[in-house]
Amino acid sequence: MERTLWWDGPLDRLRLIDQTLLPGRYESIPIPDIDALVEAIQSLRVRGAPALGVAGAYGVALAARTADSGCYLENVGGLAKRVRSARPTAVNLAWGVDRALAAIGETTAPDEVAAVTLAEAERIADGDIATNRALGAQGAALLPDDATVLTHCNAGALACVGWGTALGVVRSAVEAGKRVRVIACETRPLLQGARLTAFELQRDGIPVTVCPDSAGAELMREGGIDAVIVGADRVTRDAVFNKVGTYAHAIAAKHHGIPFYVAAPTSSLDPFLSGAEVEIEERGRSEVACLCGTPTVPDGVPVRNPAFDLTPINLVTAVITERGVFRDPKELFAAWRS
Ligand code: MRU
Fold first, then answer.
1. Torsion sign over Cα 291, 294, 300, 301
2. CA distance 166 to 245
3. From 233, 238, 299, 309, the catalytic residue
4. Is 108 helix (H, G, I), strand (E, B) or coil?
5. Which residues in 143-158 are b (16+ Cβ under 10 Å) and which e?
6. Do the domains at 5-132 and 141-337 have one common CATH topology?
7. Residue-wise DSSP of 115-167
8. Closest CA relative to residue 324, chosen from 251, 253, 246, 269
């Protein structure tokens, strides 16, 4: 599978697969400036924590090319700040922006700033695939030879530059000769599971079945699920943030004695915060109150649309990272520091 986002050399601009078109159309769009990038992030044309980190870094390279020349570095910083705050929950977005900004160092000439920020963004993009490969190999060892894995949202190649985190574990297990089937929860309201996880697994020939989010606990009760594996937007010292619905799967998995794994690169770790300090993105009414353009909630009835939820870390069997599998959060954050 091609990369989800990449630097288009001839255009000297960012290009990405527009995920709002999937599964119907697999098409890339150019991102000419920061307005377009912020729009693409907020409308989920590009989404998933690792992909957001890379988009953030490329955003700084874009800022370096489009900032006004008067007070140039200040303007680059201002544009980068807009990208950094485009969505609040995935820590990777800020991480990617900050890494590319740090690459500027003492450089001041616009051509050089453009070159060093792009070089750093390309390093982060290449690193994403290497990281996910390493993480996938760590996680694959946890799965039995014949396994059914339940997942939520899309933590696959489309949520990263490639390979995926939760789905990277599945891909690595399949590559190692294991027979793995995936149950993809549809992931209301934007259907990342039904649209994206099902699309990319079908394309790779990995068996996938889609179910409503609310069917997850029932499938666990019936006994056909060997493991739940999800991605993360942020792992604090006491909690995991991921697509809303994850928490309910974690509770159900605990109840049924099924391992609940979080697959996340170390760029998603945020040990300085507790869960209570993290902002959960609240999205617009129309995503919940409309289905294919038809209203489904009476006018005047309010809705809630938190995009993520908080899963207490004690419900997590292990966090799978590129540096190892951690059952104890203290060891996880010690590895992050080292
Ligand atoms: O709103 P989204 O689609 O950006 O949410 C994505 C998720 O919740 C993913 O599970 C998470 O970012 C991990 S992606 C490897």
1. negative
2. 16
3. 233
4. coil
5. beeebbbbbbbbbbbb
6. no
7. HHHHHHHHHHHHHHHHHHHHHHHHHHTTS-SEEEEEEES--BGGGSSSSBSHH
8. 269
Contact assessment for residue 153 and residue 103, using Cβ atoms and an 8 Å cutoff: no
> Is 3.40.50.300 the CATH classification of the domain at 141-337?
no
E strand or H helix at 62:
helix 49-66
pLDDT digits (tens, 9 = 90+) for 166-216: 999 999 999 999 999 999 999 999 999 999 999 999 999 999 999 999 999
Q: How far is CA 311 from CA 233, 320, 333, in A?
A: 12, 16, 17
> In this structure, are residues 244 and 89 in contact, taking their beta carbons and an 8 Å threshold?
no
Summarize pLDDT for 108-163 with one digit per residue, the tens.
Answer: 999 999 999 999 999 999 999 999 999 999 999 999 999 999 999 999 999 999 99
Could you tell me the end-to-end alpha-carbon distance of the chain, in angstroms, rounded to an integer? 33
Q: Could you tell which of 44, 95, 133, 154 is best to mutate to test the pocket of ligand 1, judged by most ligand atoms within 8 Å of the CB?
A: 154
One-letter identity of residue 161: V
Delimit the domains of the chain by residue range. 5-132, 141-337
Tell me how far apart the alpha carbons of residues 316 and 293 are, in angstroms, rounded to a whole number: 37
Residues framing ligand 1 (Cβ under 6 A)? 44, 47-50, 90, 153, 155, 159-160, 165, 192, 231-233, 242-243, 307
Output the CA torsion sign for 28, 31, 36, 37: positive
Active site (annotated) includes residue 233: yes
pTM, whole model, 2 decimals? 0.97
Q: In the β-sheet with 308-312, what is the strand arrangement from edge to edge? A: 234-235, 239-243, 308-312
Which of 201, 207, 118, 219 is CA-nearest to residue 159? 201
Nearest of 100, 76, 87, 85 to residue 46 by alpha carbon: 87
Structural contact between residues 255 and 218, judged by C-beta atoms closer than 8 angstroms = no
Give CATH superfamily name and number for 5-132.
translation initiation factor eif-2b, domain 1 (1.20.120.420)
For residue 279, the 8-state DSSP code is: P
